[in-house]
Specification:
The protein is α+β, with helices and mostly antiparallel strands. The protein is built from five helices and ten strands; from the N terminus they run ββααβββαβααββββ. The strands form two sheets. Strands 1, 2, 3, 4, 5, 6, 7 and 10 form an eight-stranded mixed sheet that branches. Strands 8-9 form a two-stranded antiparallel sheet. Helix 1 packs across helix 2.
Length: about 240
């Protein structure tokens, strides 16, 4: 089959999991919801088009390889929701939108003091390769969307802009995890620096994770099983 190979690389990336507090924690690989959002953005889906997001999410199969481990950093973020410029007379004038289209008027906690506080984790100076297929969608169509996206793409959060085009190549492979073993998909710096690297893919022997998204209610749902394994880095004489 034809497998699209993506490169996720940026000064900072956010592979966020479910958020239940002010702590924006990350995980070692991109979640299914993140990959869905990235592709939906490339195709120009609007956030309110929940059914299109759900359909896309159900058709994605992917595996991830860590080409360059990153350093986890935490960014302390604040915004003064009580400032005059954050208050709107009408919904149209609002600059503090929530995902459901209303001005956020929280009470209690830090919001009652006018300042919202968040801690957000990021991966700094990391590099990942993603092997990806989407059922009922050709590799050529996906490549076209990623190379000429309807909107600017970002890796997890809007401030995490890729440092290079995301789509790298298309390879012929038996499946997404097999594509990650193809020597052509390895960056030269990874071939030179490592003997083996971590990788993740769906497996019945993996650990359960909840990283799909209910796009109507904007919460993480479901369960799938993800295995972490190590892939040997090909030597210069290897044919992949």
């Amino acid at each position: 089959m034809n497998v699209n190979v993506l490169r996720l690389q940026a000064p900072m990336m956010s592979f966020g999991g479910p958020i239940v507090s002010e702590e924006g924690l990350i995980q070692p690989y991109p979640a299914l919801s993140m990959m869905t959002g990235l592709l939906a953005n490339a195709f120009g889906y609007r956030r309110r088009e929940a059914s299109r997001h759900e359909s896309l999410q159900e058709r994605i199969t992917y595996a991830v390889r860590e080409d360059q481990p990153g350093e986890k950093v935490t960014d302390y973020q604040t915004v003064d929701l009580g400032a005059d410029y954050m208050q709107a007379q009408t919904k149209r004038d609002s600059v503090a939108w929530t995902t459901w289209g209303e001005l956020d008027q929280r009470e209690g906690g830090t919001a009652s003091k006018g300042t919202a506080e968040r801690n957000r984790e990021y991966w700094a100076d990391a590099s990942y390769t993603v092997a990806l297929t989407v059922d009922e969608l050709s590799a050529e169509r996906l490549q076209e969307a990623l190379e000429r996206p309807a909107r600017p793409l970002f890796i997890g959060r809007k401030n995490c802009l890729p440092s290079r085009p995301i789509h790298r190549m298309t390879v012929e492979a038996a499946g997404v995890k097999h594509a990650l073993r193809d020597r052509k998909t390895f960056p030269e710096e990874t071939l030179e620096a490592f003997d083996r690297v971590r990788a993740w893919w769906t497996s019945p022997d993996g650990d359960p994770v909840t990283d799909a998204r209910d796009w109507t209610n904007q919460i993480h749902v479901g369960r799938r099983q993800i295995a972490q394994e190590y892939i040997s880095v090909p030597t210069p004489t290897s044919d992949g």
